[in-house]
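Researcher: Good morning. I'm working through a list of sequences from a screen, and I'd like to move beyond sequence-only analysis. For each chain I'm collecting a predicted structure so we can compare shapes side by side. This is the next one on the list. No need for commentary yet; just the structure.
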Amino acid sequence: MLLMFQSLRSSNSSKFQVSEFVLMGFPGIHEWQHWLSLPLALLYLLALGANILILITINQEATLHQPMYHFLGILAVVDVGLATTIMPKILAILWFNAKAISLPECFSQMYVIHCFVAMESGIFLCMAIDRYVAICRPLRYSSVITESFVVKATVLMILRNSLLTIPVPVLASQRHYCFQNQIEHCLCSNLGVTRLSCDDRTINSIYQLLLAWTLMGSDLGMIILSYALILQSVLSLNSEEAASKALSTCTSHLILILFFYTVVVVISVTHSVTMTVPLFPVLLNVLHNVLPPSLNPVVYALKNKELRQGLRKVLRLGIKNNKRGDGAHAC
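Model: Good morning. Structure tokens for this chain:
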């Protein structure tokens, strides 16, 4: 991807008059923005630790080798990838003042962010379909949600998201960047970067909105439909205990999903209008890329009995191994 944008840049060298961009960080609070590095670093470590622990647990526990947990494992991989795409650079800006980023690196980061965010949206949809079939069509679950379904759905999501997001950085790389190269942001967002261009960026804004409202909008529509049918099915259950359990699990998942999509909409709207104080959309954009990776594994682990039991086994095994290692070292 980096080589592709280097090639695009060389083929349009006459259009580029800046050699690099400068990520200024959080606008309006440059003097004390380094204090934000501690909570952001803790969120990043939580995202890494919790998601890696989820992956280890799913891999080691045979009882978790089921489609639902495969989707959760894929979500964990996407969350780690999304957080790692942006957080090292943000922390480098806040700790070491390493604000410079080359144009190909910036466009590559732009692509990977869009790809991972779209992938997370797709996995949320797959998990909603899984829950719909499990609750509303339980007798057909084993025949519909199979290992083959997980593989096909994952491949489809990867192809869809990797292909449809390519025009975003490609169109951005075709813009003419004159003398202004300071980006009032911590990361290379599409609309934040193209605002620096000297020529018309209408096509960039249109494609960004089309991507958000068609790709992610269709995912959200199907997710809402799935959970509406789940709610209808749950409310018709005669067992209050079963209904309460299903509602508790679905409610926590739906809160995470609605937060994810609400922030996407807010970011799209705030970037489309002139902001006198742009700190809010920038901060929201950063949190959107690090909060879900931190919260997803925690919420899913707390609300899932089998996963909680698996986590306990893995943690106990790790403690026992550490004790054995300490004993052998002492001997």
